[in-house]
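Suppose you are handed a protein chain with no further information: no name, no annotation, nothing but its sequence. What can you learn? This example shows the usual starting point.
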Amino acid sequence: MLSRRNALKAGVVTTGIIGTAGVVAPTLTSGSAAAADTGTAAPAVIPQFAVPLTIPQVLAPVMTSGTTDYYNVTMKKVLKEVVPGKPTEFFTYNGQLPGPTIKARRGRRVVIRQTNQLDMPTSVHLHGAEVPVDSDGSPMNTVAPGASKVYTYPNNQAAAPLWIHDHAHHMESEHVYRGLSSMYLLTDDREQSLGLPSGQYDVPIVIRDGRFDENGQLIYVMDDFLNRNTITVNGRPWPFFQVAARKYRFRLLNSTNVRFFVLKLSDGSTFTQIGSDGGLLAQPNVTSQISLSPGERADVVIDFSRYPVGTQLVLENLLGPGPAEQVGRIMRFDVTRTAPDNSTVPARLGVLPAPRQGTVNRTFTLRMDEDGRPDTGAYINGQTYDPNRIDLRIAWGTTEVWTVTNANQFAPHNFHVHLVQFRVLERNGQAPGPAEAGLKDTVQVLPGETVKLVLTFNSYRGVYLFHCHMFDHGAMGMMGTMEIA
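A reasonable first move is to predict its three-dimensional structure. Written in structure tokens, the prediction is:
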């Protein structure tokens, strides 16, 4: 993966900026040397801000009852155009990129029949959800080609921007890279009562990167982070989005395999973060940038009423690796009209009780090989993933404190726990900043960092995963299993 040679090439060692987590992060470079090294089409041949943002379709249930909404979803290959004039093959849910959004409500079950029309096994994981073990989408609980599986989601947790992605053992990295992801927006009465921007002004923003060859086809190479320089939003390369001069709510999702983002508006102005992975923050966080590692979400409100009609505003990314003119730009907002706005961002949002006192303490060390060996391994506590091994045995109902350390010198990681939303107690011995003050299921752990988390296991029993959510690292072995009983 990240040899010293590649780390230097990426700018990790020699130069850096201070990211939102307070540590050195890779800078952007100029030029497109990385693309030129590969013999592939440089992303610069794809025009930027030339196509409109598309909004993922909201999936309609095929049947409803007094307690449950039922859906049918098919996993299949389709052709979509990213490189102009050259259709690309993607793996999709229902033929859409990203897949259709499912809107769910707390206390009302969702049942999805997933049919696999691909030529390889898949496993469907609802990331961030409290679900029974048979619907969690574990790496070995797969859907065979031509088969179907029913997933049941009770939706007993608070409103949160969840998402669906593949989790098949050793295949999840490539499957998600090729398109198997979609949003799952869970709401509740409290969220609905707040008066936040809604309807057409509540917009999913699913950010990805990719590498395309001269024929417009995606190239998948494990941990090929240096060469994935085409940025797409909702499946469209560097799109523009025509907005009214009013408030919008954006559900930001980093659905990349490896890339971190630090997002900001090109004029440096502030926006308001109202939520993170597990739902609403207790109070708004006014900020000028937001940091997202793979799998993390941020719920933000941008007020375009401060801009005159005709303004063009770019959503930028401060982090590399890669050319600034490519990975440093995400999308553009074009203020094209005025519109009435009765929405608001109240001073109090969610209800976050104080974290429970932990009775069990555990430590986790994340590490991957950095010496350039051809078969790079990635480890948790010195072990690679073995689906037949139980790494932790947890008593149901207990609260635990987990201390997670990244032992690498160059490689960043993050840490995702299935089944539970946790609280961040400390980052490098300090209290977390406001962006990490809410419920989380994925947390950044950059080189040399240590984070302390508190988790309560009081929903379902069974065997669940914890792992690095940089998909390529997970596929290399950085996963473990816990049994709650």
